[in-house]
Specification:
heterodimer; A: globular; B: mainly alpha
């Protein structure tokens, strides 16, 4: 078990190191003066641009030797200093991101977990059941092949514009100020539903199909046939098949995190939902490289943390990792 | 496609096995449906530009016109013909799939074979690299690369996508190679003094051709979806048109509020249908290659 975690942590540490290095390197090695490009696109007034230019030259530290710039970047990172945003100028990037994070967590956590649980249950029932397999599974294929944002666009158009049931932009009604009133929470939930539904549906299709295929593999394997030959009830055989199929699905969940995050970013853009995805769009449009760097780092850290949590769950579910056999995840 | 089932070992069974593959392939509904859908879109991408006289970028018609016999898929807010954009977008989509998916598979094959066949320290290092790229959120990397590139083409985008998409294929191919490496026929080839790469390509690869082909199909679909997401965020090609870019423009110019469904529905339908067809074909092929999975 120590070996298992040791390897995992080494990979995560190296990944983090690599990601930060990429994050640091790209604005520095692009042709031209990154600060000038940034400020030219930001369209700030002359005196403001002057002040910003001085600040960013200092912040980037472009006059220092390269190795020192690199070390400074790490040092600032560990002090939680991600620079200052251009978009909302005097505000530090860390604060801007901090305000967006709750929306991302509220959107992604339920969407990922619920779709995984529901998709697995559903896929397991559909496997080797002719009726469900032929009617509902094609829908699963269509769902999992749908680009997240397009499902979002369709839902927004059908349920938001044509039927007018759901609002299609923002995280709460623009007429309200955030308070802890029942009305406000209702508005938040109302705005949350469509973006949540589009992520949930796409993922649900993917998990259901994955589980269906895995269960068929398991039901055709030797141990299942052996159990059947012994006269075990069908329910028991399926239960064993389900438990065995859950492990690859758990690995799949870890591998899929980056993709879901990407999908969520695009979905947030459709609904103007004020999470990280929306911030990224704005920072790209306004050439706010500091904010973009910050969002990038945040996504990396988030995905690594989630991966680590899944590793811990894996140890709890798969006894082979506990007793030192490498098992599937290693 | 008939090359997939061609066994190089035991040449005796060659003609028989190929026909067996075709027999089950032609009778597999999933494969048939997938192939038909895919063919329709390939044909549309190839002959589509011949069916339309309009320049996809030019302002040729009345703004915001619904579909008509003149403008099959209607026009955009600026009066661009949606159908001309759509067929060109299909071409970019297939380009991304072939180049991005192809490169992703190629890298996966090379790294997977090397790691799996060599083993030892080479395997350790390659496995570590694979795991790192695997947890690195691909889109975040692509995002940051694309954001700094002033000029981006569809081809460059495909190359970047291919360069980040290989890890899972490499991992899967590595473990397959690992299990084939210790088989007797490989030992025999090794004893007869054939060099390593030749063993990999003549003894190991043919035994997992179906697997490689299925990996390519999944990479193809994955590349299309990633490209669509990138384009939608506004980091797609700066020149040319793609399906993701069409959706991006539609949302940007509030086609939703104006009820211009003909602008954003076709590109999404095309992506969903193509990727869905690929996924369905993948499962169909799995059933063809693996007799245990066939429905009875």
């Amino acid at each position: 078990m120590r070996r298992y975690f040791g390897r995992k942590l080494l990979v995560y540490a190296l990944t983090f190191f690599l990601a930060v290095t990429i994050d640091w390197a790209i604005p520095r090695f692009m042709p031209g003066n990154p600060i000038q490009v940034m400020l030219a696109r930001s369209g700030a007034r002359a005196e403001a641009a002057e002040a910003m230019y001085t600040y960013y030259t200092q912040a980037f530290g472009l006059d220092l030797p390269v190795w020192q710039q690199y070390l400074n970047f790490w040092s600032a990172l560990f002090h939680g200093d991600l620079g200052t945003s251009i978009l909302v100028f005097p505000q530090p990037v860390a604060k801007v991101i901090g305000e967006a994070v709750p929306y991302d967590v509220a959107l992604l956590l339920p969407a990922i977990l619920l779709s995984w649980i529901a998709g697995n249950k559903f896929g397991a029932v559909a496997a080797r059941s002719k009726q469900l397999d032929n009617t509902v599974l094609p829908i699963g294929y269509i769902l999992t092949a749908t680009p997240y944002m397009w499902l979002g666009i369709l839902l927004a158009w059908a349920l938001g514009i044509v039927l007018g049931i759901f609002p299609i932009s923002g995280a709460y009604s623009y007429a309200m100020t955030p308070t802890f009133s029942l009305k406000f929470i209702g508005s938040v939930l109302w705005h949350w539903f469509l973006p949540f539904a589009s992520i949930f549906l796409v993922k649900f299709g993917g998990w259901a199909i994955g589980m269906r295929n895995l269960i068929i593999y398991e039901l055709e394997s030797d141990y299942s046939h052996y159990l059947e030959a012994l006269g075990a009830p069908r329910k028991l055989v399926r239960k064993y098949a389900f438990n065995n199929a859950l492990l690859p699905q758990l690995t799949g969940l870890a591998l899929d995190l980056g993709v879901v995050v990407a999908g969520a970013l695009a979905t947030e853009i459709v609904f103007s939902y004020p999470g990280i995805g929306y911030l990224i769009l704005q920072s790209i449009q306004n050439r706010d490289f500091f904010l973009l760097q910050g969002c990038f780092l945040f996504i990396i850290v988030g995905v690594l943390l989630a991966n680590f949590i899944i590793d811990i769950v894996y140890v709890l579910v798969d006894p082979r990792t506990r007793i030192g056999m490498t098992g599937e995840a290693a | 496609m008939s090359t997939i089932a061609e066994p190089t070992i035991g040449g005796m069974a060659k003609p028989k096995k190929r026909s067996e593959f075709l027999y089950f392939a032609l009778r597999n509904n999933k494969l048939r449906v997938g192939l038909v859908v895919l063919t329709i879109f390939i044909v549309l991408a190839l002959i589509g530009p011949l069916l339309t006289n309009y320049d996809p970028e030019a302002f040729v018609g009345p703004p915001s016109a619904p579909p008509s016999s003149e403008y099959w898929f209607g026009t955009t807010t600026f009066g661009q013909d949606v159908f001309s954009q759509f067929v060109l977008g299909l071409q970019s989509t297939f380009l991304v799939g072939i180049v991005g998916g192809g490169l992703g598979t190629l890298l996966g094959v090379v790294i997977g074979f090397t790691a799996g066949y060599r083993g030892g320290i080479v395997d350790e290092v390659l496995n570590m690299i694979t795991n790192i790229v695997l947890v690195l959120p691909t889109l975040a990397i692509l995002l940051i690369i694309a954001a700094y590139l002033e000029v981006r083409g569809v081809f460059a985008e495909s190359v970047f996508i291919g360069c980040t998409a290989w890890p899972w294929a490499a991992r899967a191919i590595r473990s397959q190679t690992f299990s084939l490496r210790s088989r007797e026929f490989v030992d025999l080839a090794r004893m007869s003094g054939i060099n390593s790469w030749k063993i990999v390509f003549t003894e190991i690869a043919p035994n997992m051709m179906s697997y490689l082909f299925m990996a390519f199909i999944l990479q193809f679909g994955g590349a299309i979806l990633i490209a669509a997401t990138l384009d939608f965020i506004g980091l797609g090609p700066t020149k040319g048109i793609s399906l993701g870019l069409m959706m991006n423009n539609a949302v940007l110019w509030s086609a939703l509020h104006l009820g211009m469904w003909w602008w954003f529905v076709p590109p999404g339908v095309a992506i969903t249908a193509i990727v869905g067809a690929l996924y369905v074909m993948n499962v169909g092929l799995d059933e063809v290659f693996n007799p245990k999975l066939r429905e009875l």
